[in-house]
Amino acid sequence: MAFAIEFFLRRIGQGLVIVLLVAFVIFTLLRVVPGDPIRIILGPMTPASVLEQTAQDLGLRDPILMQFGRFIGQVATGNLGRSFIRGQQGGSAGGSQDAAGYNPESRASVAQLIGNALPYSLQLAAVGILFTLIVAIPIGLAAGLNAGRWPDKLGLYVSSLFVSLPNIWVGIVLIFLLSAKTGLLPAIGYKGFAYTIIPAMVLAIELSPVLIRSISVSIAANLGEVYYDVGLVRGLSRWTMIFKHVLRNAAVPLLNLFGAQMIGLLLGGLFVVEYIFSYPGVGMLTINAVFQRDFPIIQAVAILASGALVAINMLVDFTSTTIDRRLKF
């Protein structure tokens, strides 16, 4: 128990520093790249004096450090701000003013927008990971337990094929085959769970190649260790050694890899797949916010994503130390 408390306290402190650094970098980049969100908010025909006054009212002309400090203070109280573009109903209100001028209170809460989109992203990620495990674990185990034979070659061929397929191309092909051609599954948008299946298949094809090869290599390497031969000499059956010792020893590098895969899923794959399929998750929300220069949404998603990455790494490292206490993080 003392180890767990000390581990989590140390890692939470490190994680907060990482989240703050990521938030500051994203916050700064949004304000130094060319392009003024005020013109998108109010529209191209708005007089320059009104544009400047609105920018000052929103604090966008203050020094970056002052803006960042104000933003972190809001986040610390649970306030993620309001969208620049999206109205209360979630639709785009960019390029228009209210009767009395631009009113931030007429815009949607960022927390509400993310809260509405997050369940869709979590569902897609969960189904994608489930499909990945269904594909990768049997093929990887068979390849690792039969090194040099046909299951090993099959695992190599499958992983090589999958890793060579761009997810955009895979998405288009699956839409054509499973939706447009046969009508088996819906593809674009979301009107029920069935709309998650094809995007999840694209994610599984993207995530499974590295996992297949890592499982097979890790299992094969442990089968070649001295402890495996000693166990057999002492009378333990092959399957007892595999299930009680080989899989346990192979789990640590696989957990670290799986954590890295999850990070990759959050950083890129999920967002791209949601955009391809017009899937109404956080990825789609973020990409639209980037196109519209909707700073509050981008900043909030950056903080939540970096926090999720820190949490994933923390859980993976703690699980690894639980399996093998010789590891220290």
Write the layout of secondary structure elements.
Blueprint: H1 2-32, H2 37-42, H3 48-57, H4 64-76, E1 82-87, E2 107-109, H5 110-145, H6 150-163, H7 167-181, H8 197-223, H9 226-233, H10 238-276, H11 282-292, H12 295-323
Antiparallel strand pairs: 1-2
Helix pairs in contact: 1-12, 5-6, 5-8, 5-12, 6-8, 7-8, 7-10, 8-10, 10-11, 10-12, 11-12
Structural features, described:
There is one protein chain. The chain is mainly α and 329 residues long. 73% of the residues lie in helices and 3% in strands. The protein has a two-stranded antiparallel ribbon with strand order 1-2. α5 (110-145) packs antiparallel against α6, α7 crosses α8 (197-223) and α11 runs antiparallel to α12. The chain is globular and about 85 Å long. The two termini are 16 Å apart.
Give the low-pLDDT segments.
none
- Largest sheet strand order: 1-2
Q: Which structural class do the helices and strands define?
A: mainly alpha
Helix content: over 70%
Assembly context of the chains: single chain
Strand percentage: under 5%
Give the helix tally: 12
The number of E-state strands comes to 2
- Output the radius of gyration: 24 Å
Largest sheet: 2 strands, antiparallel
Return the average pLDDT rounded to an integer: 82
List the helices and strands in order: HHHHEEHHHHHHHH
Inertia-based shape: globular
Rounded to the nearest angstrom, the distance between the terminal CA atoms is 16 Å
